[in-house]
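hey so i finally got around to running both of the ones u sent me last week. sorry it took forever, my laptop kept dying halfway thru and i had to restart like 3 times lol. anyway pasting them below in the order u listed, first the sequence line then the structure token line for each. didnt double check formatting much so if smth looks off just lmk and ill redo it

first one:
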Amino acid sequence: MIKVCRRLFAAIVLLTAAPVVGQDITSNVITLLTDDGAQVPAMLMHPATGMNTHGPGVVIHHGGPGGHPARGCCAPRWAGEHLAKLGYTVVSPLSRHSSGRNAGTYRAEPFETATLDVKAAVDFLAQLGAQDIVLAGHSLGSIRITRYMIDTQDTRVKAMAHYAPTRDMPEWMRANMGHERYLDVVDKLSTLVSEGRGDEYIYEVYEASFPAPPGNESASLQTARNWLNWWGPAAQTRNTVWFEQLTVPQLLLSGDKDTFVTMPYMEELKAAAVNAPSVGLRWYEGGIGHLFQGARAEASQDTSDWLAEIGLGPRSEVTTRFVDTQTAAGRERSGVFYAPADGSGAGKPAFMVVYGYGGDIMWSSNHWLCVRLAQAGHACLAGQTGGSGPNVTRTTLESEMSDFAGWADWLDKAGYEKIVMAGHSWGGIRITRYLVTSNDPRVSGMVYLAPTRDAGERLEQGMGKEAYQAIVKEAQAIADAGDNDIVIAEFDMAPPAPPGSSIVRPQTATSFLSHWGPNANTVHTKEMRKVKVPVLSIAGSEDPFVDEPFLKAFTRAAGGKAEYQYYDDGAPHSLVGWEDRTTADIIGWVGERVE
């Protein structure tokens, strides 16, 4: 039976912890190392109880030119402290565009170095374990974080917030100076650059344009080359141009007395963000200026409320520990056990997550899925088997079965009577074979993420019948002789993979026959007939291994109640980018079919 689930489970509800309002925070000065070798100081703020490395992280860039993250008047401080109190980990770099770097090195730093500084902060949070990053920028920091996304297309960034976002820099400077003077300055500086004098400093005084009040004089001191890089006609410093390319939710915040930002400009930015899933606009009235005096608490709260609305609220704490088991075959195996820190997983089904071909317990779907399942209140175990990492070249499918039994025993002893097995890609064949051969009564449900096709048939399609029969014959001769030599199967993947997508599989003869041979127990659609527990399968439209027709056939083949989710909006084989949606669908299904 096929049932296409139409439910839209809200990851916000499932994965968001109740904020702890007013908790103390810890602040530190840290040093970030950029890709070009620069050392960038940064503020690090998080709850005094510690960093939640499984929750969203926030990077807030200060304004400028100049600017400084530690100033109490600016968003890195007041918004950062508010978010840290709620449970976020916040990093605010003292970038190379700040006033605190050698009397203002921004005067000679090209605008694109901001990308390197922002990336160092994002990398820092990602290395801690944060899987969802939020970028925020105050004033000119808005253009910097936008430039970062245009330069990198960083998929780790899930949302962006812009406090009093600066107008397009060339147009703003043209308005300040007047058209004729602006062109004269551009011509003068272009000449200096063409003469090899681009490192000479220039000092220009101008009157800030509307909405600044008359007589609001400003000045710039930068090298000729850098002034053109920031303010020249060809400068890559235009939010209105770039916003069209942003594909994550956006939040715009500003006030009615901001001397740089007008409501028409905010509306122009909102209209430009045509590819963002959502764009929020917060406009504060009552004399609220560029530094948000009188509205800092409100703007901070609006930011955290908005993050919660889009599924990026504070996450529940997760405990992670490394565990071991010994199988009936006498093999020692190690694993990672994830559980809700508040103990709420007791009495609920626990998950056993199994990686794909050549995978491992500490990366890919094992980690992101277990973290999110634990945040949603379920314990989760990622356990090693004989097919971990490169060992898949030597192990047989059948030899892994006692490994799964050992991990099921471990969960049983830990107090979890019901187990849901989840296999990603080739991991699906493994968990199917385990349940079919063991009939383990503790297994109450099966989840297949991007389930693998029937292995031998797929290899024959990729190699061609004659080449497939030849390698099978070679492997069988080696195995019959009692040798353990390597055979190498090289083949093109069949559709839906694009033409020319090749794979090389080196394995010992016995391992090859166990996984890819004509008598291997890896005919997934055949094996699924013996699976009588509830089944959920998930795959996406950019998966080169799984298309919707196969997902339907796979679901139809199941011997029990089975349903599937097909993400037709570009989800890849890894399901990265669809982690929250995947987890929410699994949790909803477990609540209906297993618990």
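and the second one:
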Amino acid sequence: MSRILIYDTTLRDGSQAEGISYSLSDKIKIAQKLDIFGVDYIEGGWPASNPKDTEFFKQAANINWQNAKIAAFGSTCKAGLAPSDDANLRALVECGAPVACIVGKSWDFHVVKALGTTLEENLRMIEESVRFLKEAGLEVIFDAEHFFDGHKNNPNYALQTIKAAQRGGADVITLCDTNGGCLPGEITEIITSIKKWIEVPLGIHAHNDGELAVANSLVAIDAGVTMVQGTFNGYGERCGNANLCSIIPNIELKTKYHCKAGQSLKHLTETAFYISEVSNTRLSKNQPFVGSGAFAHKGGIHVSAIMKSPETYEHLPPDKVGNKRRVLVSELAGTSNLVEKARELNVTLDPKSKKTKELIKKIKELEYEGYQFEGAEASLELFLRKNLGDYIDHFKLEIFKVNTEKRGTSEFSSEAIIKIRVDDKVVHTAAEGEGPVHAMDNALRKALTEFFPVLSNMYLEDYKVRVLEESKATQAKVRVLITSRDQESMWSTVGVSTNIIEASWQALIESMDYALLKEKKKRELQSVAQGGE
């Protein structure tokens, strides 16, 4: 079984994505996570470009890497300059990384227009730069920038550039679809045509501008490359780079090839989420393999089928990549959806009962009004338990009022006044906040924490508002989704109204209701465990 090397460039190419900026600490954390996962190479950055990357390599030199080699990125020497006199190449030698990856031009158009030099001088720059780094004792990877576009425009010259890298002693020559515009057939044809001239192992570096970076990487492997460059979650400039979260499981589970990281597939989803958190980005729900929706089923026919045999609508078991199957409940739901989702929530439903059919009808009516339970499973569980008589209200609202005030040029201020009843006791209190929702949250906590101390451990994680009927302008309904969390878990609740305060109140109340339900279930489990002892 042929082994494919995985070269991760999340910390360099991935950091060029809009909205991503890594601190030194971020880069170290991500590199260590990638190393544990099992990638073969981690490109840490460009030591000649900024002090942060220089410091990264200093710290990396003192870390005991379990699986990966650390690579430093740079470019060939400048036109008219000897490699030994080029500060960029000297930085690669001095940074302490055992691997140097240098980029050079392979498209004649770029040589003349971008570098402003001759085609012959560019070949000299490539060969001598690679040789200089090899003589310094480094493993050298040559990235042939724009190779496929260059080959389509001037195949002979594109071939000469990688031959120059081969003469210089490159360990791997990576063919780059830098503009991301090639089709899989072109990738296969071009790699096949140049293989007879090149003895050095080949790699692929694909960008995703045509939504084909993963496909192009996989066909390149079939065509004979043995190294794949990419980024976790597909981060990168413009439309991103080849997504290693898709490439690695496809290699390991669906081809005759193998990669070391394939042994860690059960940690793929966890690693993708970790890197997205450190990158301060949200992992796309529909990202293949690792997204929360990658194995989510909504259509009633689909759910009915997967309950009998999951492979009817899943290309692989989700636990193979550390993900999990989810059943969504919406206006598209059938009995199978609701029964399966209820089972996940430890609520028993009889699929043949009249009550179950009534619940489905109610859910569809609520979704028609604007509710969305697939993103608010805490609200769904509360809905089911209340309609099944398996829930007792912890408190009852008597009255609440929210005032927002602005005087002259002063800042807005908000105050919430609330009266609630807990058993036979009435609590009347008020609290201020940065805005009306914050004030309501503060007032509720102030009133309820005395009775339910567990509420002091939860907090609002996220707050989203969606306008549902844009044509009605300020009279439109809005849907508020609140995500809350405590030290153990995270949950979401939903509210809908033409009044944003009312919608927020609904979602806020249910977030606290659910926290109290969680605590009740926790106590019941502890009681059962103690009884068993």
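quick thing i noticed on the 2nd:
DSSP finds 17 helices and 16 strands in the chain.
anyway thats it, ttyl
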